[in-house]
Design brief:
This protein has 216 residues and is of the alpha/beta class. The protein folds into 2 domains: 149 residues, 3-Layer(aba) Sandwich (Rossmann fold), CATH 3.40.50.1000; 54 residues, no CATH class. The protein has 12 helices and 6 strands. A 6-stranded parallel beta sheet has the order 3-2-1-4-5-6, with helices on both faces. β4, α9 and β5 form a beta-alpha-beta unit. 38% of the residues are buried.
Length: 216
């Protein structure tokens, strides 16, 4: 029985195009250049922020983030940043009677922007507010609390194996790996990911089918 679904944010609900384009514009480098470097970081299993460090060696990313905010060029999140299947899938999940929540590695500001979109969910939580981030066990303990169910009754959905699938599986949650974004596509067929994920899905619409079948 699935009583709760908790979803990652970046490249699960939201497309990161605007995020990386804003960083490229801030450093005055071609958007394709920074995007390609994100791909390099992903393929090497590195922190995606290393793409910024490759563009500007020695940069203090947190300080640059604050400078962007002060200059009025900080984070933005709008309706068209959502993947097209997000609202229909979230609504369908709630109509099935399951609790739906969002929890990911995002800043407090990103959390505010996401809540302002008024998604059909029961809760939105971000690492910036929790002061703890994936892939730590404490983050996923909080996911269990957020889900308000036993771990084996909660499905955590995400694209990133190291941040989403593996730690969620380790703590006893059920997991759905989403083939979306750089991480989702690159690692989709990896044997370790396939073994750790209870389901591999290509869209959030498929997630609705998963929950429907599991609860039938």
């Amino acid at each position: 029985m699935i009583r709760s679904v908790v979803l990652d944010i970046g490249e699960t609900l939201t497309c990161d195009d605007r995020y990386w384009a804003a960083w490229a514009d801030w450093f005055d480098v071609p958007r394709h250049t920074l995007s390609a470097l994100v791909g390099v970081a992903v393929s090497q299993g590195r922190d995606n922020a290393d793409a910024i460090r490759m563009v500007r060696p020695g940069v203090d990313v947190a300080a640059e983030y604050r400078a962007r905010e002060a200059a009025g060029r900080g984070e933005a999140l709008e309706e068209d940043d959502l993947y097209h299947d997000v609202r229909p899938a979230l609504s369908a999940l709630r109509n099935l009677g399951v609790r739906v929540a969002v929890a990911g590695n995002q800043t407090s500001r990103a959390g505010e922007l996401l809540r302002a979109l008024d998604l059909p969910v029961d809760a939105v939580a971000v690492s910036g507010d929790w002061r703890v981030a994936k892939p730590s066990e404490e983050f996923f303990q909080r996911v269990i609390t957020l889900g308000k169910a036993r771990p084996d009754e909660i499905v955590y959905v995400g694209d990133h194996p190291a941040n989403d699938v593996f730690p969620a599986h380790h703590i006893g949650l059920r997991t759905a790996h989403l083939r979306r974004g750089p991480w989702g596509h690159l690692w989709a067929d990896d044997p370790a990911v396939c073994e750790a994920a209870d389901w591999s899905i290509n869209s959030l619409s498929e997630l609705v089918d998963v929950v429907t079948e599991a609860n039938s």
